[in-house]
Amino acid sequence: MTLRYLVGRLFFFVLVIWAGMTLIFFLPKLSPNRDPIRERMGMMVASGGAMAEDVEAMAQAYEEKFGLDKPLWQQYVAYMSNMLRLDLGYSLALYPARVITLIMQALPWTIGLLATSTILAFALGTVVGGLLAWPQTPRALHWLLPPLFTLSAIPYYLLGLLLIYVLAFRLRILPLGGGSQYGTLPSLTWSYVTDVFRHSLLPAASIVLSGVGFWALSMRGMMVTVEGEDYVTLAEAKGLPPRHIFLWYAMRNALLPQTTSLALSLGTVLSGALLVEIIFRYPGIGSLLFRAITGFDYFTIYGVVFFIIVTIALATLILDLVYPLLDPRINYQRS
Length: 335
What we know:
MetI-like fold; 0% strand; 335 residues; 13 helices
């Protein structure tokens, strides 16, 4: 990998982040409701949370504080400066809470649940899919194919509802939802860790069970394609052990498209499996985004979308740097 290519990828990474930040700034300006402050204040008046005569004064105070009364180009310069310092502003619904504080509070829950579940589903599905396509796999393993087809077609949230009904409502083995028991404060104690683990089992199970089928079917298709390649035939002609051919000739080459899909999946983990977190009332980024959308908390929506853009761009950058390590044939140097 050349220094020129690395600099080019870093430049593209910065360009994507800048484009995403610019879209976040200008898209709301194109909507009919261009004044989120007054709209939010109007909702507070309708719900009895504020007096109608105070709305204009409060809106003007907000505009002066956030610089919304300045020309557009000055707003853009101030916005870009704040975003580079990760100053995402204040939440309209939970003022004076800062958006970055809300995101950092929800981020560990989402990463701990969704990243772990996605990687686990990827690992299990990749191995099972590779074995299903390998000719020397025992015939009994092929009975897994119909269940995997079924699981891959079921959305996360429907599977989550089914698990809630069976395991939480009927059998009462696991809690119905939430990140931990109500009223408990986070602490590094065995009882709290066990409680968090029990609450994460149902949402994690819905993601893993649905994801395993997807990854397995995808890997099976890649393996069927790889088995017909000349290098696999040559390895068999040389008399190499079947296990060696399976791992180092078939699986290794079939993993490249899988790795691309995994990187993009991990990039979208910050957005959360939105409906899964809502169904299980899990306190992650998905639930934060849902509350912000339903509460017209525009600044929180902008902050969450910004973090999603950054993670997707970062995952793509890491993928480009890891590809040559997975396959030595990939060379970014000009011939």
